[in-house]
Amino acid sequence: MIEVKGAGKQFGSISALNRLDWTIGEGEWWGIIGPNGSGKSTLMHLLSGVERVSSGMINIRGRNVADFSRKQLSRMMAVLQQEGIAPVHYPVREVLEMGRYPYLDWLGRDSKEDVDSLLEGIMDKLELHELAERPLDELSGGQRQRVALGQVMAQEPQILLLDEPTTFLDIRYQQQFMELVANWRRETGITVIAVLHDLNLAALYCDKLLVLRDGREVGMGTPEEMLTADRIRSVYEVEPVVVAHPASGVPQVLLSRQNL
Ligand code: ADP
Ligand code: MG
């Protein structure tokens, strides 16, 4: 459903991405990994239509991303950044409602009959009822990220783009966030593309990983195929120990102290 054909991006003399070629199927969960500056966020910007490709093209459901209007794109895909949403002084319920923006007509009427029950359902799933009237800027980072997820759920997209969504969360909220996305995908068949710094979370949750380095694809495949000690060593320049997760068997990456 998402076809990336020879896509590249230049910023002046900087080549941020070079000739990427792959297809993401409907309902898959892809992780994008790679060192800082490898082009991960640039790729998310190209996929979401925020930036245009300098070469090649990106098609979504057979149509060039550049040919969709902003509103059409927002009805199809939602983007969630590292810091979620700006900590505005609006109650949580209103912040969720803002996710409906792409569906409002010029009179501000929603094309959906029953928005209230949609929002109720989201607040149930994300346990946001007790926070509904609290202003967003008074919540903790983990709570805010949950509200941000609620807002993109209200947007009812078919594609979810996440750019390092768990970076500022403690391990409990990291796990909670990933589980909520996993449940959402199970229930709706949504396609998820997530830039993740945490290789172990990526291995636990993603079907496929795309590994970038210096704007180039250095590999694409299952976590088992991608997270080998050799590949991690060459991509990140560390000396890793890769073990199988004792419960699920997926690869988990450990570092060792260098000077003992
Ligand atoms: P990552 O998200 O993997 O850390 P980015 O996609 O943010 O990497 O950046 C990839 C490269 O592109 C970097 O060298 C960065 O400096 C450059 N870059 C990204 N956005 C811009 C921009 N708007 N203008 C100029 N250079 C940019
Ligand atoms: Mg980035």
TrEMBL record:
Entry-linked InterPro entries: AAA+_ATPase, ABC_transporter-like_ATP-bd, ABC_transporter-like_CS, P-loop_NTPase
Family annotation (CDD domains): ABC_Iron-Siderophores_B12_Hemin
PROSITE patterns reported in the protein's UniProt record: ABC_TRANSPORTER_1 (PS00211), ABC_TRANSPORTER_2 (PS50893)
Keywords from the UniProt entry: ATP-binding, Nucleotide-binding, Translocase, Transport
Segment forming the signal sequence: none
Name listed for the protein in its UniProt record: ABC transporter ATP-binding protein
Originating species: Paenibacillus dokdonensis
GO molecular function terms listed in the Swiss-Prot or TrEMBL record: ATP binding
Transport among keywords: yes
Residue ranges occupied by any ABC transporter domain in the UniProt entry: 2-239
UniProt KW Nucleotide-binding keyword: yes
